Amino acid sequence: MPRYMDAAYGGETVVLENEHVRLEVHKRLTGWGWGELFVPDGDRGWQFYAVLEHLAELDAEGLPHPLRLEAPSYETSETDGTQELRFAVRTQEIEPPNAYYGNESPMAGTVVLSLADDEAIIGYRLEVEAQFVFKLKRLRGAWLRVGADSSGAAKDDAIFPGIEWLDGDEWSSGTDWFEHPERLRLTPHPHKVAFPCMAISQDGVGLGLWYEPDTLSTVSPSGYPSQLLRFPQPVFASPNFVDCRNDHIMGLMWPSVRQGLKENALSADPSVMLRKGFRIWLNAEIAVVPGRSLDVVVAWTQRYGMPDPGEPRYPWREAYDRIMNACNTNLWLEGEGWARRWAYRGEGSPVVPNEVRRYIEEGDDAELVAGLKEKVAWCDAQESEAGRRDHPLGRPLGAILAQPDRTKEFADALLELQTDEGDFPFEPQGRHQTAHGGNAAYWRPLGQAGQSAVDLSATAAMALMIAHDRVGGEAYKDAAHKALEFAMRFQRPEGGDWWETPLRSPNLLAAGNAAMAYYKGYEVFGDERYRDRAIWWIRGMIPFTHLWEPQDLPMIYNTKPCLNTTAWFLSDWVSKHVQWEVLRVFSMSDDFGWDWAEIDPEVDWATFEKGVTAAVLRWMVDHEDPDWMFRCEYPIEWIKDGAWDTLWADTFDPVNGSYGGGPIGPYEVAGNLRILMRKGIV
Hints:
Helices cover about 25% and strands about 25% of the residues. It is of the alpha+beta class and about 675 residues long. It has a domain at about 10-305: Beta-galactosidase, Chain A, domain 5.
C-alpha cells in the first residue's frame, strides 16, 4: 500500500526499479499519478525517502483551484536497458463539467519517467502544449517532497548551488546569514543559480534534482516568433515552509523570474498569456547518490562534465602580455608603486607583485624586463610597512607568506593563541576586529568570541607547517597537527571572509584554504585521512561556481565568494559574483607544487582551472571594447583614457550583466595565465 497520506489511492501501481533505486507510481482516484521513491536501506531492503507529488500541476485564470495533469492509463517500453513509463496527460476532470472550460484541458501532452538498469537516476520529461488561448498562473513539473510521511524535516545538509548550503537543521531563506529582503531565496532569478542541481541528504544518502536549465525552442505553428528561450524556475524550500509541512521541497515550475514570475513568488502576477500551440518543456533527473549533498553536486559534474569555457576574450598569451606590459605602463603610479585598487584615480603600493619578479626571471621581452627591473629597484629601496597589520594574525597564512622575516614571531604568537583542544577561536574584539564587524555589531555580531570555523584552524595550521619548514621546531608541527584534528569535525566551508561576512556562513575561500591545509598536512604527516579531507574541501568550491550560463549572457565559471551578505545590510553575495578568491586558491596551490587535477582525478580540475581564468578575462577593463564599456558600472570619464586597462572589476551582477566594485590589480590573473600555459592546459 502507498505510504503517502495526501493522495487518494485508486488501487493500481506500476514500478520502476533496479538495485539502486525504486519508484512506485500510483494511480489516484482521478488518474495517474504520483510517485514514491525508495533508496537502499543498507540491509537489502528499501527505505521510503521522497514523494513525487504529481506528474504535473496547472493553475490558470478561470480554474477554481490548481488542477493536476493526470493520465487515464500508461504505456511501458524498454530500449537498450532503459525502462520507460509514458503518460498522456491532461488536466483532471471535475464535476460539474462547466466548473472550468467545460472540462476542456488548457494544456495537454506527455510525461515520461525512465530508469536505466545500471543507474540510480530516474528520468523525468514533461512536454505540454496549450490547447487554446488562456492565462497561465503557473505550471509545476517535477515536484519532490523529500521526507514526506517518512523522515520528515530531518536532514544532514542541503545544497542549492550558488544559493544555499544548509547544515543540519538550518532553514533555507533564513536570516542566519541574510536580512530582509535578501534572505528570501525560494524562487531566485535563474541567473543566480550556479548550475541546475538541488540536493538534500539524510542518513548517508543524497537526493538530487537535476534539470535542463534553458531551452531554445521552436514553439509556434501559427506565425508567432519561432525561437524563444524557456527558463524553468527551480523552487527550493528546506524545510517546507511553503506548505508549513514536515518535509522539504525541490521542484520545477514555469514561468520563471525571467518570464513573468516575481522573485520568491510561486505564481505569476499578472498571469502569462499563452496562445494555442505554445509548448513548455520541464525536463529533470532525480538522482540517488551515497553520501552528503556535496557528493550529489560532484556526481552532477561527473555525469555532465565540466563545461567547455569556450574561447577566451583574448588569446591566452596575448592576455598575459597585456597585463605584463600594463605593469610597465599604466599600472605603474610614479612615486607610489603598482596599482592595487583605484578609488578615483589611483592607489599604488611599493609591494612588488610576485608575477613581476617572475617575469624578470623568466620573461622573453628584454625591454620589458629592463623597465620592470627599474621599478622593482625603486620599490625595494622604500621603507614600507605594506602588508603589516595591527593584528596580522587575523590572517596568519597571509601574514607568514607576506613577511617571511617574521616567521618565528608569528608562529610563536600562534602557539599562544591555540586552545588545548587545538582550536584558533574567533576574536572579534582582538585579532579579528574590523570596521565591518564593528558596524555589523550595532545590529548583531558577525560571530561571537570563541566560535570556531574551519578557515580559522586551516589557515593557522598551514602557517605553522610553513614555519616548521622554514625554521624547524616540533612545537609548530605538533600545534598544526592538533589544529587539523580539531577541524576534522567541520563539513561545510566557513570563515573565509570573517572580516565582513557572518563567520559560520558558507564560503568559497574557506574551502580552498582548508583543501591546501589538509594537503600540506598529508605531506607532513602522511595521514591518508588528510588527503581525503583535502579532496573533500577542494570539491567544496564547486557549489559556488557557475557551471552553466544563459544563452544570452556570458557568465560561465564565474564564482560566488560566499552565500551571505556583508555586514548584514551591504552587498548580497548571492546576487553578485567575485573571482579573486578562486584565483588565489589555484595560484597559491601552484606555489606549493600542487596540481588538483592529479590529486583528485575524478573531477576535471584542469578544465575548471581553465574556466575560472577564462572567466576573469571578461572582467578586465578595456577602454577600446565597446561591449565592456556598455556593461561597466564605472563613470566613463574614469576609464576612457586607458589608465584602468587590465584592472578588473571586483563584482559582476548576473541579472543585469554589469561589472562594478573596486577595480583590482591583475597580477594574480597573470599568475593563473602563466600556470595554465606552463601546464599545457592552454
